[in-house]
Structure to design on (256 residues):
């Protein structure tokens, strides 16, 4: 996997009509993109909801976060019914939306299979390749334009995890997904293996990492089954837990 050259910003957008409305500010978020934003017990959870809640609390402004299918969230924003959180900024959206200041920065990576490596250094290297992306997401103006012209064959999926599965099965050449330092990787790995995954958030990050807090919140909000999360930089705790799991499996194994 390699870093792609674009670094999109995660922003909160709201239409001008909506922004002037009375009452709590209503923000739609994707209901199926853990650990960034998803739904649990009818409520929006994940990294983006946590950051947005904190921002509105700091401004002393009431906010209601609504988990919605991403397509519906975009439509409601276009119709002035709600704002939208966790949306990537591009030229087309700047014409329609009123963006807040940057809330979060992500780095995007290109993932490929070791059995079919792809030499990647710039966007032109993806021409003619079947690329897995998330439905309704923008990956920067250059990529969006390449998709429109057919230079890049983009295949929409519902999640990074699903796209990684397609890559593993040989149905995609590459997958564009968010880098792992903000806590997304454990959810992806859990979807690919049938063993427990111990997630260790790191204090080393970029953007609004808050010394590992963003990664910790993302891992704790993950909806995937089979994840155990330890504290920030607690590699010893993760290793000890792994040893206990292995010891339990050994003692449960039948004697030869």
């Amino acid at each position: 996997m390699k870093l792609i050259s674009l670094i999109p910003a995660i922003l909160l957008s709201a239409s001008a009509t909506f922004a002037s409305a009375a009452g709590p500010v209503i923000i739609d978020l994707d209901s199926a993109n853990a650990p960034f934003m998803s739904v649990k017990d009818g409520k929006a959870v994940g990294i983006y909801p946590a950051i947005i809640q904190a921002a509105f609390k700091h401004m002393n402004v009431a906010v209601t976060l609504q988990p919605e299918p991403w397509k519906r969230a975009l439509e409601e924003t276009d119709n002035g019914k709600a704002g939208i959180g966790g949306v990537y900024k591009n030229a087309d959206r700047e014409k329609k939306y009123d963006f807040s200041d940057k809330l979060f920065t992500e780095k995007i990576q290109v993932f490929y299979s070791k059995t079919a490596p792809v030499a990647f250094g710039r966007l032109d290297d993806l021409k003619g390749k079947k690329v897995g992306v998330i439905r309704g997401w923008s990956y920067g103006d250059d990529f969006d334009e390449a998709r429109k012209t057919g230079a890049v064959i983009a295949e929409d999926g519902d999640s990074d995890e699903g796209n990684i599965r397609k890559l593993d099965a040989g149905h995609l050449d590459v997958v564009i997904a968010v880098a792992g330092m903000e806590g997304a990787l454990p959810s992806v790995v859990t979807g690919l293996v049938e063993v427990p995954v111990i997630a260790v958030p790191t204090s080393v990050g970029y953007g609004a990492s808050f010394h590992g807090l963003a990664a910790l919140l993302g891992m704790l909000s993950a909806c995937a089954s089979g994840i155990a999360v330890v504290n920030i930089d607690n590699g010893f705790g993760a290793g000890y837990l792994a040893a206990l799991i292995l010891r339990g499996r050994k003692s449960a194994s039948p004697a030869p």
